[in-house]
Design a protein that fits this description.
Two copies of one chain form a homodimer. The first copy, chain A, is α+β, with helices and mostly antiparallel strands and 266 residues long. Chain A has a single domain, classed as 2-Layer Sandwich (Alpha-D-Glucose-1,6-Bisphosphate, Chain A, domain 4). Chain A has six helices and nine strands. In chain A, strands 1, 2, 3, 4, 5, 6, 7, 8 and 9 form a nine-stranded antiparallel β-sheet that branches.
């Protein structure tokens, strides 16, 4: 949260604590409040994000009767390419200071585990299979999270072998970092549009998406934590819309330049 | 709430039931929802409001894990001087009808106790040490409050002996008026800017700030009331941002004229 922490980093100049105002379409969506669940994309249909055009529900949130929430945000990213976003999801996760560039007011800590260390691999192959442990505020609540990147085919995408400069889908299972509990799933689908890219983010969290992490047993202690994660209220869902929109808009503002400088120095 | 109540008062013409629209920066802050606690000014650092420039968190609210909330609002006050605000905090508190000018839709009642009665004392010295008992709506909730003005040095300010036309800090402990319970603290720091003044308001309420008033014992009955005050939710914090912004913007619109007329008649 302090600029001094970046002293000596070549990318220090990209740290900007001033967040851009929220886009009008996000303000509008938040003003509308919770929306009908049938409008929402289900995780089983996530891959339809690759289809041309837009879905019924591109911005806002919905609260389901099982306590889960669906969150959708559209971020316009002028001058950005899908390949830059793939680069970012690999590059930022390696170092707390990089992670802080993304959302200076809310991002506290990042640590990486797993994935490939093959520096000749395409960027997307470097984060798939790895886990980003992060501490970040969502609203006023501190989340200590394990973002486990998965191959897009796990959410049904078949086109990630296509030109990464045309589209990419960043997919992850989101869990807690201190206990082996998963909370839900996310996808950031990024595609080329005139003058840059657009990112369509989707989250499915809480309710039936809460599960012990592969191999873990749901002890009584873990069940108590799980119970707290299952019921996502209006405040939490709204905070996630705001958080996602804020960080992605902030990223879009410096990504083309930091990516360009990174490439020139490699 | 009725204009007729002001019949015969020389200041009746300043009663205006139409509130100005909320400033864009307040709408934006409310749209963002609760913010990360580490961004907030702590009461121990309140005096840094005297520093040049702005802090990380000038507008909005944050919810802390102990149930307390921090509220921050910036109000632009063209044509206003810090000395006028000092005058207002003394003058308005003496009479319900004056208090109603401030926020016709929400202010119901005001009664004054203590402070100095020396009419030759500077205005700020007349309200410091006194208590303003007020009934007012914050959102849909009626608050029956005891605003106990304290010397700014209690919050660490050392510069209130400086020119009152350059800056002033109005500091108070806020409690309930019917039971001896304090709820939190506030400061309105006002400084000269080009063309007028700006007011930076800060509230720390609920949670650890709830305490029996000097000398009072925390009986079981009082503890029940305290328990209710400790946990401030999203709705209450948001209502306080709106309330403070509304009343201070409304005040700014008539303060230069009413102060001028008051001075000419003295």
């Amino acid at each position: 949260m302090h600029p001094g922490e970046l002293d000596g980093k070549w990318y220090a100049k990209y740290w900007n604590p001033v967040m851009a105002p929220m886009p009008e379409h996000i303000k509008e969506a938040i003003g509308l409040g919770p929306q009908p669940p049938p409008l929402c994309l289900s995780p089983d249909d996530a891959a339809t994000l690759s289809d041309t055009g837009y879905g019924e529900f591109e911005n806002g949130y919905s609260l389901f009767s099982d306590g889960s929430a669906h969150i959708a945000t559209l971020t316009l990213m002028p001058r950005v390419s899908p390949a830059m976003v793939d680069w970012w999801f690999w590059w930022h996760a390696m170092e707390t200071e990089r992670y802080k560039l993304w959302y200076p007011r809310a991002h506290l800590y990042a640590e990486w585990s797993g994935g490939t260390v093959d520096r000749s691999a395409p960027h997307r192959d470097r984060y798939i299979g790895g886990t980003s442990f992060v501490d970040e505020y969502v609203g006023s609540s501190l989340g200590e999270l394990a973002i486990q990147f998965v191959h897009p085919d796990k959410l049904g995408f078949s086109d990630n072998s296509a030109d990464p400069d045309e589209a990419t889908a960043i997919c992850a299972t989101v869990g807690l970092s201190r206990v082996p509990l998963d909370w839900g799933h996310l996808v950031h689908h990024v595609r080329r549009v005139k003058g840059g890219a657009e990112m369509r983010s989707r989250f499915w969290m809480g309710g039936k998406y809460v599960a012990p992490r592969a191999g873990a047993t749901l002890t009584d202690e873990l069940e108590t934590v799980a119970e707290g994660l299952r019921r996502l209220g209006d405040g939490h869902a709204r905070a996630m819309v705001v958080h996602c929109s804020q960080e992605m808009n902030h990223l879009a503002a410096f990504l083309p330049d930091i990516f360009d400088e990174f490439q020139r120095s490699e």
